[in-house]
Amino acid sequence: MTAEKQKQEPWWKQAVIYQIYPKSFQDTNGDGVGDLRGIIKRLDYLQDLGIDAIWLCPVYKSPGVDNGYDIADYEAIDPQYGTMADMEELISEAKKRGIRIVMDLVVNHTSDQHPWFIEARKNPSSPEHDYYVWADKANELKSAFSGSAWEYDGQVGQYYLHLFAKEQPDLNWKNPALRQKVYDLMNFWIDKGIGGFRMDVIELIGKVPEEDITANGPKLHDYLQEMHRETFGGRDFLTVGETWGATLDNAPLYSDPDRKELSMVFQFEFTELDKQAGKEKWDTKPLDYGDLKNVLAKWQKLDFNHSWNSLFWNNHDLPRIVSRFGNDQQYRERSAKMLALLLHGLRGTPYIYQGEEIGMTNCPVSAIDEVEDIEARRMYQERLAEGWKKEDLIKAINARGRDNARTPMQWDASASAGFTSGRPWLAVNPNCQEINVKNALNDQDSIYYFYKKLIALRHQERILTDGSFELLDTADAVMAYHRENAEDKWLVVCNLTGEEQEVFLPDKVKEVLLANGPVPEDLSAAVLPAYVAFLCRVKK
């Protein structure tokens, strides 16, 4: 790639993004809830890690039914997180450290406490009434949080649509006045100096509920192109859409720069691999390593000249990856490093979820009253009524519940892990005694420093950004691939399991760049210990 073309490349192609769940990151006032000043306090930590941007989960004013994904005022900060002055200081202080703030944009739905919805209910002839989706009769659409997606409003005499909780009424994107309101609020934040938006369930805004169409409706891409024109178009700005229905065929529709829509999307195909076919996420099965390899490799087949890919294992909705695909007991550190190298060696923009860089794990509960997550609680009540055993439901929540990702960040070994001086809103994982930032920073061989090296490689070596990808022929339990450009050729090898695995590779190692264990001298017939992974420069 020429130096001139590299200058024209968007910053996010060589960036690493760090996701913060503000409620659980750092509390500074002792109320047990993380806040904006806590994020400001930890900016030096994030700068040292080397990240380029923070994806900030919602901090807007909200009743908190779905932990901020039910927004009551898009242009106000929820008091539990601080003030607008705190938010402006966060943007400014992050910028001084070369870190952009990417706001979470939730515009498929609002809170039922939003002034628009209050007016829509009060006055069915008001303009705001048509900002939402109403019907005289409910159809069979289901909510993601159990039950019908329709709620009867006796005050109005109609049903309103809620694809999530009944307190999260869906917006009517067919209404041009509503769309302009959304663009106005987006420009409010762009003018504040943010560097991007992560777009919550954005594939749903083109819904046609009367035809049972929710995701990927016929007008979806028209809306996104209009949004691009009216807001962030022409800016060096990151936009990433949450698209659970993304496929290799439709993902480029969002991210082809010529179409002027988004920078990239999150695709979730790997999250379905340990779920029973045709069942819900709670109904699990063992992971097939061959399936995992094939899915990851498939997404490397995008035409990266006309599309872009996101890379992630974790987020606020997913269980911790070291507990899910690794081994969070005997091989926690080694398997966490393996999963990190496997992902960060791929082409695309990597996302790190808070605590991933120190190997935080799932946090099991023993009873439903320990669970905060609305999705898990509603599943529990629904299945309990169907005759399921309590112990089986708790087991499912421990494996897949969203609270696993939301336990407070583990800064040190103190009672509340350095997260708060008060009582944390969600119980701290007891393993904070061992797994915490303080311990990680004091150990040069820790998961933290492994991530730091991966991030540095992403910044320094263009081969990770623009090199080709080739999956190598190995046993299902081993993933090996080449990254190659005109100047260089790299090899990534990962044992995905807790058992020794054999590899037979033709490459000659020139230089080991990163490894979590011993690297065999002869790859033509080698045995890889459990969860061993390495990245090396090989002969072209």
UniProtKB/TrEMBL annotation:
InterPro entries: GH, GH13_cat_dom, Glyco_hydro_b, O16G_dom_2, SusG-like_C. The keyword Flavoprotein does not apply. One of its GO terms (molecular function) is hydrolase activity, acting on glycosyl bonds. Residues 19-406 form the Glycosyl hydrolase family 13 catalytic domain. Keywords: Glycosidase, Hydrolase. Belongs to the glycosyl hydrolase 13 family. This is Alpha-glucosidase.
